[in-house]
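User: Let's play a game. I give you a shape written as tokens, and you guess the letters that built it. Ready? Here's round one.
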């Protein structure tokens, strides 16, 4: 539940970050390098606001990415590998074969192995 919520927040932050980046002018001097702001929403003041908002959203995006990665690794810890279908190695003569789990029904073969083998034997050229 928390993972899904943070994932949605991450997507919203990504859209806002892309929008902020596209709204800025590409004149160089980004991220507050040089210049002084004499007014709040003058051309330069607006550029400073967009630059600061972009920096804040970028930090938020990276922080959410780290948090989501941490949550994803914690959710995967509880899983285990099902070894019920693993056959013993050929060198293990004393090892008993592992039976499938009770809830796993064996696959049924509607044709049957004998029918397949007999049809292969007749096609292999025995009658020639």
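Assistant: Ready! My guess for every position:
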């Amino acid at each position: 539940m928390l993972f899904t919520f943070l994932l949605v927040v991450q997507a919203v932050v990504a859209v806002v970050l892309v929008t902020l980046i596209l709204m800025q002018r590409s004149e160089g001097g980004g991220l507050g390098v040089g210049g002084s702001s004499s007014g709040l929403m003058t051309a330069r003041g607006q550029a400073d606001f967009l630059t600061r908002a972009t920096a804040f959203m970028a930090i938020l995006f990276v922080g959410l990415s780290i948090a989501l990665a941490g949550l994803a690794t914690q959710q995967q810890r509880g899983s285990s590998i099902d070894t019920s279908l693993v056959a013993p190695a050929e060198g293990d003569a004393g090892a008993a074969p592992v039976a499938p789990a009770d809830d796993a029904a064996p696959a049924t073969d509607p044709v049957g192995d004998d029918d397949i083998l007999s049809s292969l034997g007749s096609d292999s050229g025995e009658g020639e």
